[in-house]
Amino acid sequence: MTALHGFLPPLTPKGSSALVPNPPWYYSGTLLTIEYLTDPANVRAILPDDIDLAPDRPGAVALIWADWQSCSEGGLELLDPIRSQYLEAFAVVRCAYQGVTYSRCVAIWVTKDFAIGRGWFQGYPKKFGSIHVTRLFNRGKATPRLENGAQLGASLSAYDHRLASAVVTLREPSEDNGFVNGHKMLHNRFMPSIATGGGMSLDQLVSMGGIDVDLGPAWRGDAELSLADSQWDELGSLLPVDEVLGGYYREVGTTFVGGELVTDRSRPV
Amino acid sequence: MTALHGFLPPLTPKGSSALVPNPPWYYSGTLLTIEYLTDPANVRAILPDDIDLAPDRPGAVALIWADWQSCSEGGLELLDPIRSQYLEAFAVVRCAYQGVTYSRCVAIWVTKDFAIGRGWFQGYPKKFGSIHVTRLFNRGKATPRLENGAQLGASLSAYDHRLASAVVTLREPSEDNGFVNGHKMLHNRFMPSIATGGGMSLDQLVSMGGIDVDLGPAWRGDAELSLADSQWDELGSLLPVDEVLGGYYREVGTTFVGGELVTDRSRPV
Amino acid sequence: MTALHGFLPPLTPKGSSALVPNPPWYYSGTLLTIEYLTDPANVRAILPDDIDLAPDRPGAVALIWADWQSCSEGGLELLDPIRSQYLEAFAVVRCAYQGVTYSRCVAIWVTKDFAIGRGWFQGYPKKFGSIHVTRLFNRGKATPRLENGAQLGASLSAYDHRLASAVVTLREPSEDNGFVNGHKMLHNRFMPSIATGGGMSLDQLVSMGGIDVDLGPAWRGDAELSLADSQWDELGSLLPVDEVLGGYYREVGTTFVGGELVTDRSRPV
Amino acid sequence: MTALHGFLPPLTPKGSSALVPNPPWYYSGTLLTIEYLTDPANVRAILPDDIDLAPDRPGAVALIWADWQSCSEGGLELLDPIRSQYLEAFAVVRCAYQGVTYSRCVAIWVTKDFAIGRGWFQGYPKKFGSIHVTRLFNRGKATPRLENGAQLGASLSAYDHRLASAVVTLREPSEDNGFVNGHKMLHNRFMPSIATGGGMSLDQLVSMGGIDVDLGPAWRGDAELSLADSQWDELGSLLPVDEVLGGYYREVGTTFVGGELVTDRSRPV
Predict the structure, then answer these.
(1) What pLDDT is recorded for position D13?
(2) Which end of chain A has the smaller Cβ count within 10 Å, N or C?
(3) CA–CA distance, C90 with C239 (Å, rounded to integer)
(4) Across the strands, what pairs with B221?
């Protein structure tokens, strides 16, 4: 009898239909990050009961636009680039669990289905969005360059509602591209019982991080950020901006090979 | 402390960001169905080991284009129709488990993220696709009408590769719109461990069906169907067409309120 | 030597690459119309100098969502429906020229390139948009029906900015679906000289209307309408709503076979 | 009375709704070029009667994927990058007119409406397509780098039919990125009379080229190219590949400020 192959469904004998292939997953791209402060009560309100606020600057938020090219082992995706390229816009806060500080993604939109599948696996609460961020080219007049005064724009829309618009003006080289998204991620993975009201068939706390991180030069600067809600998405009301801390741009490469189970409360329901 | 609300992530205090809200989920739309025979060995090859071929016509396949409007309780989605309308193209086979015959979706593409989320919950192996099917209007010359000779086209593309093209020519009223998709669904829900190679954190067999099914008049006729593969999707090689049985068109309404757990092999990994 | 064929470029020996094939063009679909009053000065401001305000209710505006299936002679487009189906959202005012009252489209967004091409030919100032409108199905609970209290939503977005959101609540059958879009259209067609600052190589006033109009029953009711601008599109500031007159829904069919040249001021530049 | 402003319609008092603003138009991006030989009879067949084959290598074709960021004076588009970024895939041949050799675009697909509008103005026969090309990043493992063995993929799809797939393998630095697209462009601009069968209201031959061309280092290598037709687009049958000459990658910047009228045969119809 033929076995079924693939990492995420659909599974087939050959395995090439899988929404997501086996890790490792490789990433090359750019990150445009805006960090700001919101009332820590807003962060507290979107954390599960058993997860605490971070002890330091608990109201810090990073809103990040990632412009990725990504592939699995062998790099087949790079030769049909529609399967390789995608963008993400996501909100990250910090939190603490059993005394350790983690980063945590509390909202994220992506442009491709394989990215949604990877998010389900990793506990990123992914939805589809339309996402754009200014690119840096080396030639011509229709591009900023990596220098003082360079301006990069970014936008996020979902279901045809503009949820975020941003402009970052770079000022100077920086040692890092922010501090909020700098810890291992602490995420929940869950799946309700197929029987309505039956509780959680999958209910896990997991943690993970990238390896082989390959960092380009970081720049920091000023940022303007406008957030909104729609009927289907809360962003402006969930994590309103009190004070912008700064904007950052950096090229990055990273690899994902898996994470660790922290706690499991799943039940056979 | 604020509780978090929502059916599928992201969860928020208010709950309106959820990718999918609580059932019931209501559906109104049209189904264009093409039924055909493939070698039963092809069906056998995509069933898990513990699921058997259906005893009768085990090589029968239904390829279905659904053009849906859908909403949850209260119908808010209908007032912002981008959140309500989507299309699906999916392949259904029949199978048997512990002596009972079921329908089973083995491949499915949809046009919206909330539909992907519902599929993840129901065990439909959903991916994103670009899907189109001819509509029936009542006025003018750019539409077939529900009559002998009416022709409806349909297409499915994923990652810019055309996977299926079809034309159905209606001939006569029919008592049903096929037999392959007529049983309760038997699906697998699974999620690999976050630790690579760690086995399945969620591994369930579930079954489900619609309620309050509201059927319009069915028509049957002839069908032409062309299937293909891409690097990312197997369809033409997975379930090749030996003999087309017929094509069907029907308006339908249905409601989903949940299903039943059949077996659970999940492990806390 | 082979001749080149096709109605709009690209032209090829076979002619099947043309962005738009030869008329006649057939249309079947639905119209959701909202009529309202704006200050007549707003209408005056977007008419060319030589075109006058309509003598009666000069500040009346119709904002229309059309959900079309369309084909040319032979109907090949209907068998590959991605080439046949599109939506339009457009603003129509009335005007007068040499004593005759016309309708005039002053802003329009569509979802397909062939529709942009037809607009360029007809003098509709078409741009690309993302457009949605609630559909009426006959089965199930996720649809309004043609009855008192039925609610239909509609949206228009361009470059990920929401420009219009509307809800129409139907109340009763109506003899028509409004009066603003009821005259022949009076449009300008122009093309600047390829030499910058060279004037207009094409500068025409044209008129046109549909034939073989096939009308379904019209319903009228109340409407809510919210308009906005973006950096790239003026709608809310251009034709702000003073008073909503009503909302309408109607199925329609029509055929376009060409129009008439009214004046020509083109120059060989 | 208020004047109407804007380069291409719609025109408004403020002018910010124009599909395309006034030149100059600035471009920064990358070009992936594949040059090949087809039978010169194929090139002859898609040239108008009064345009000749180029005297040297008349069967040479360049198929080019351009990944652009573009803006007008002031650069506002760069701050809302959805309005600035687009891709093009286009086929270029060479031709001769009155003894001068020109380049000529005979088929082109783009991803944004403003690019279609610029094409109408410049005589590029633009249609919408879905276009992707591998990008070069500087970090991580999901990217080729500018070196021997680097592989870049590219695809073009229109109406969900894959029309072209390509892979270029870079081998060495090159002095240029091909010879086919290296001359001034010679294009036709036309618009049929609004009266069916009425001839051409606009019928011009125009020429143009870029200024301030800013070229990055070029690389050349091998290429694989697969072309196809659909019902709506001729490419594989129009310009079939006899022999691939090579593949090229180069970053480029350019500026468009207008062109020259060569001949005018427009008539007031």
Answers:
(1) 97
(2) N
(3) 12
(4) B170, B247
Distance CA C266, CA D227 (A): 40
pLDDT at position D191 is 98
**E strand or H helix at C60:** strand C60-72
Which of these, D140, B103, C32, D232, lies nearest to A252 by C-alpha position?
D140
Tokens of D144: 């080729």
Q: Which ranges of chain C does DSSP label H, i.e. alpha helix?
A: 40-45, 113-122
Q: Is A25-185+213-253 CATH 2.40.400.10?
A: yes
Number of H-type helices and E-type strands within chain A? 2, 15
CB contact under 8 A, C153 and B81: yes
Q: What is the nearest CA distance from B150 to chain A, expressed in angstroms? A: 34
CA atoms within 13 A on the CB side of C207: 14
List chains touching C (3+ CB pairs under 8 A). Answer: A, B, D
Residue ranges per domain, chain B? Answer: 25-185+213-253
Q: Are strands B85-97 and B126-128 parallel, antiparallel or unpaired?
A: unpaired
Q: Are B145 and B152 in contact (CB under 8 A)?
A: no
Residue B119: strand, helix, or coil:
helix
Tell me how many degrees the CA angle D149-D153-D154 measures, rounded to the nearest 5: 150
Please state, in angstroms and rounded to a whole number, the distance separating the CA atoms of residues A189 and A121.
Answer: 7
Please say whether the beta carbons of D11 and D3 come within 8 A: no
**Residue C7 φ/ψ region, left for φ over 0, alpha for ψ in the -120 to 50 degree band, beta for the rest:** alpha
Distances B146 to B137, B143, B216, C154, D136 between C-alpha atoms, Å = 9, 10, 12, 27, 53
Partner-chain contact D257 C122, CB within 8 Å: no
Q: What is the pLDDT of residues B59-114, one digit of tens each?
A: 999 999 999 999 999 999 999 999 999 999 999 999 999 999 999 999 999 999 99
Determine the Cα–Cα distance for residues C105 and C208; give it in Å rounded to an integer. 12
CA B34/CA B246 separation, integer angstroms? 6
Using CA of residue C18, residue C22, residue C26, residue C30, what is the dihedral sign?
Answer: positive
Residue C230 identity (one-letter amino acid): S
pLDDT at residue A197, rounded to an integer: 86
CA C165-C167-C173 angle, 5° bins:
140
Residue D99, phi-psi category: left (phi > 0), alpha (psi -120 to 50), beta (remainder): left
Residues of A in contact with D78 (CB under 8 A): 134, 142-144, 151, 153
- Model pLDDT, residue A2: 61
Residue D268: list chain C partners with CB under 8 A: 261, 264, 266
**Alpha helices (H) in chain A, listed in sequence order:** 40-45, 113-122
DSSP string, B5-27: B-SSSSPBSS-TT-SSPPSPEEE
Contact B66, B30 (CB under 8 A): yes
CA distances, D29 to each of A65, A133, C56, D251 (Å):
20, 15, 52, 6
Can you tell me the distance from the alpha carbon of D263 to that of C269, in angstroms, rounded to the nearest whole number?
Answer: 9
State in Å, rounded, how far the first CA of chain C is from the last one. 30
d(CA B256, CA B211): 6
The CA-atom distances, in angstroms, between C199 and each of C196, C265, D163, D256 are: 8, 11, 38, 18
Contact C130 A160 (CB under 8 A): yes
Residue C238 CB contacts under 8 Å (≥ 6 apart), including other chains = C42, C46, C106, C107, C229, D12, D17
**Sequence letter at residue C237:** S
Whole-number Cα distances in Å, A28 to A119, A255, A258 = 17, 9, 18
Q: How far apart are CA C230 and CA D79, in angstroms?
A: 13
Partner chains of D (3+ C-beta pairs under 8 Å): A, B, C
